[in-house]
């Protein structure tokens, strides 16, 4: 409340008494006193301190809100447990309705509530804040007595990468262990029973050992290729390469002598791309080998190099055969993904061929599309940017 101006009122009262003594009508004098003191009281009246504090506080909220509004990080500011400010990113994450709400109600998760209820600075990891599988780290910083800043850092992608890494190591170990176990088994049998083995049996065992050892060699080779390509992912290759002649050479290599009669190569001109020679050859070999393996055995595989939209060249590898069911298509380039593991292994597949293709295409700033029709066959299309010729 404002303090009444006692001294000014005293002056007004004394003046009125003097006026009364001077013979002024007491009703007029009384009215004068009422009006005067009322005016004094109004002039002296100040806004209540609480309102003033609110004004000051909303002014600082405004400033703080503006400062954090466009941050990519979701940030909220709480005042006595209620959300006073939520920046654009936080409103996108939790909804615009959270402003004014009790922060514990807005976040709900027990770990978050525990953090909000503590007065100290701290952090918590919360799952499923906005979507079921997402993971967030929440950092809380106390500001003075009443306020706290709460920051949300999305850790979902990091967790996904770490999970993919763990899965990859587990899958790779499994793939390596199987042929290794088989080699060890046959070697032990050969050593223990060498005198009792039927003629020709030892030779069969040795052939299996050789096949499994080759599989190990292919696997290790593909794993090393993959890690090398991944390591160079952000380095655009600088060598200028004529694609048609490279494709012709690598496609013949991929088909091998025995399957050469099934190969058809169509080149519609010459095309210069910026690329890594060995990687582009590996890409063509992998696609042609797959087309030969998974296409019908008597059908032709067509490899085509042709102009695409402006400044692009299109390389396509087409087989005729069973094709691939649509549900498999989005996963084909994942490491060790196979639609038919038995068939892949029987044909010497490592399950890494298309993952390697995908990484090579990405490194060359290209694009990979897979189109397949059940009962008709599959086309793998790779688009690469052309070198601009002056
Ligand atoms: P793999 O060593 O098993 O051939 P890839 O990564 O090259 O591994 O291919 C992954 C899987 O994709 C294969 O196991 C196969 O199921 C499928 N696939 C690849 N190319 C073709 C194709 N041309 N036709 C049908 N299926 C294919």
């Amino acid at each position: 409340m404002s303090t009444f101006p006692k001294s000014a009122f005293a002056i007004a009262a004394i003046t009125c008494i003097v006026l009364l003594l001077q013979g002024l009508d007491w009703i007029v004098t009384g009215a004068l006193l009422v009006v005067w003191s009322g005016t004094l009281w109004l002039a002296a009246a100040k806004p209540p301190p609480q309102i003033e504090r609110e004004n000051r506080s909303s002014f600082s909220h405004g400033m703080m809100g503006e400062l954090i509004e466009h941050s990519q990080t979701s940030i909220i500011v709480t005042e006595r447990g209620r959300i006073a400010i939520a920046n654009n990113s936080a409103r996108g994450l939790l909804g615009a309705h959270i402003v004014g709400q009790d922060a514990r109600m807005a976040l709900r998760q027990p770990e978050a509530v525990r953090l909000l209820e503590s007065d100290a600075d701290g952090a918590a990891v919360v799952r499923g804040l906005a979507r079921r599988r997402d993971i967030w780290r929440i950092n809380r910083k106390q500001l003075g007595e009443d306020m706290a800043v709460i920051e949300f850092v999305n850790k979902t992608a990091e967790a996904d990468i770490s999970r993919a890494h763990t899965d990859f190591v587990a899958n790779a170990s499994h793939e390596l262990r199987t042929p290794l176990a088989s080699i060890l088994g046959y070697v032990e049998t050969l050593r223990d029973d060498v005198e009792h083995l039927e003629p020709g049996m030892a030779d069969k065992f040795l052939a299996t050992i050789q096949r499994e050892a080759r599989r190990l060699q292919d696997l290790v080779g593909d794993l090393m290729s993959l890690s090398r390509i991944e390591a160079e992912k952000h380095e655009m290759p600088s060598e200028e390469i004529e694609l048609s002649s490279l494709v012709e050479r690598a496609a013949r290599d991929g088909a091998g002598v025995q399957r050469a009669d099934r190969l058809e190569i169509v080149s519609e001109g010459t095309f210069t791309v910026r690329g890594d020679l060995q990687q582009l050859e590996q890409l063509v070999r992998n696609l042609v080998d797959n087309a030969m393996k998974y296409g019908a055995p008597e059908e032709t595989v067509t490899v085509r190099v042709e102009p695409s939209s402006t400044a692009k060249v299109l390389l396509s590898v087409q087989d005729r055969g069973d094709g691939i069911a649509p549900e498999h298509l989005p996963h084909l380039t994942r490491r060790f993904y196979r639609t038919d593991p038995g068939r892949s292994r029987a044909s010497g597949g490592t399950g890494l061929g298309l993952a390697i293709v995908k990484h090579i295409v990405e490194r060359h700033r290209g694009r990979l599309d897979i189109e397949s029709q059940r009962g008709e066959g599959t086309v793998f299309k790779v688009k690469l940017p052309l070198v601009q010729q002056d």
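The first strand starts at residue 74 and ends at 79. The pocket of adenosine-5'-diphosphate is lined by residues 286, 290-291, 294, 319, 324, 332, 337-340, 344, 349-355, 378 (CB under 6 Å).
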